[in-house]
Amino acid sequence: MATPMTAAQWRAALKAEGVKFTEYDSWTTRGRDAATGKSFGPVHGVLNHHTAGSNSLRAVAVDGAPNLPAPLAHTFLPKSGIAVLVSCHRANHAGLAAANVIAALTAETKLPRQDKTSTVDGNDLLYGIETENLGNGTDTYTREQYDAWVRWNAAICRHHGWGAGSVAGHLETSVEGKVDPKGPVEGYGTRGLFVFSMGQLRADVAERLQHPASWSPATSAPPTTEERLTSLEKRVTALEKK
Ligand SMILES: [Zn+2]
Fold it and tell me: Which of 4, 50, 96, 228 could form a disulfide with 180 if both were Cys (CB 3.0 to 4.6 A apart)?
């Protein structure tokens, strides 16, 4: 449990972790605290979502969804990988969460199956990010987007002194049948195309947290001109010997 990050702490944590971001108008004052009479926090963990749509920034920040006023998350992460901060207060993203999962998240132990008989309001307790993806199983998270996603989760965990065990997906906490986040990912580090899973996201966040915030994963960079020329020379030499 911890006190929610202030706007200044958000900026500092994300910048240190290498998250590129912009700030949506009034993000430091926008929230559901006054309207619900409930304040955000103490925070217990981080919750990840996919938008199930495209160009959802305005919906997440201002317009909301049917019967669900905005903000719908703290951050919107489009395919560009440049995050948009939309709120640092109470946001409507988590809905009802299973109390047993929240307890495990807080203790950073393996998340159990949701016991739907006892619930809490996840919006009181969890940071939330809406990552742009149609959620149709074929729409792909870009490499830049996934890299920023890992960094965003790690930045919050590092700020609070949490481990990757404080990171969850909506499908793990919800008692309302949510299935997000899911979908293919273009790649990360030296890994090519893979299918998103919360286990993999937590492993990637855990790997980041073993390094300083300034760390970047090794990538399978394309060969340099020099390497390509050397390779060409070898092939020419081999041909000449024939
Ligand atoms: Zn969700």
Answer: 50
pLDDT per residue as tens digits for the range 167-203: 999 999 999 999 999 999 999 999 999 999 999 999 9
For residue 221, name the pLDDT band (cuts at 50, 70, 90): low
Q: pTM of the prediction?
A: 0.91
Query: Domain residue spans in the chain?
Result: 7-241
Q: Helices H, strands E: what count in the chain?
A: 8, 10
Instruction: Please give the distance, rounded to the nearest whole angstrom, from the Cα atom of residue 215 to the centre of ligand 1.
Output: 29
Structure tokens, 40: 């955000």
CATH classification number, 7-241, choose in 3.50.50.60, 3.40.80.10, 3.30.70.100, 3.40.190.10: 3.40.80.10
Q: How far is the CA of 225 from the centre of ligand 1 (A)?
A: 44
The yes-or-no verdict on residue 210 having pLDDT over 80 is yes
Q: How far apart are CA 43 and CA 2, in angstroms?
A: 5
Q: Which of 91, 95, 92, 115 is nearest to 103 (CA)?
A: 115
